[in-house]
Write a structure and sequence with these properties.
Blueprint (H helix, E strand, L loop, with lengths): L13 E6 L5 H13 L3 E6 L1 H10 L4 H5 L4 E3 L17 E7 L1 H9 L5 H11 L3 E6 L6 H12 L3 E2 L13 H14 L19
Parallel strand pairs: 1-2, 1-4, 2-3, 4-5, 5-6
EC number: 2.5.1.129
Family: Belongs to the UbiX/PAD1 family.
Keywords: Flavoprotein, FMN, Membrane, Mitochondrion, Prenyltransferase, Transferase, Transmembrane, Transmembrane helix
Amino acid sequence: MPIIDHAPQQTRRRIVVAMTGATGAILGIKALIALRRLNVETHLVMSKWAEATIKYETDYHPSNVKALADHVHNINDMAAPISSGSFKADGMIVVPCSMKTLAAIHSGFCDDLISRTADVMLKERRKLVLVARETPLSDIHLRNMLEVSRAGAVIFPPVPAYYIRAASVDDLVDQSVGRMLDLFDLDTGDFERWEGWQAEK
């Protein structure tokens, strides 16, 4: 009789990446590029407004962005693997995260695959990072952020790190993406970390 090995197999890290229609599409794109380079398996969900924002803000086409992911799921496919808690994942990042999506996650109103998968991350106590893009913030936004944070999510506004003395917007984006992925214990190596005051060159 053959011996069946039931020992857990070593697998790649697996992260869900969701992109909404908020401004800052390049953050999601750069996150996908970094995760691909780090050999992390990615599952991408993109809203229709994310696709519009990608075309408006960047030189990428949505099809190029989808090609960066290992798996792409339709936002209306509520039967996708990532919609179930039995699907193993290391976490999810919503980048950028609109206030509409934040509100849906806060209320548990799972009317699309992004909000449903985020709900799964919270109930399964997995890492959920929301890269919230809005300013200024209303009381409603702040209340939603507080309640979602209390439920276990991490609110990550992509605030520029001026101490890196960025030479370009790309430098600021790389620093933000690097700090986002730090939350998953992934080091992109793409940005300068704070080492204390440095002598003038």
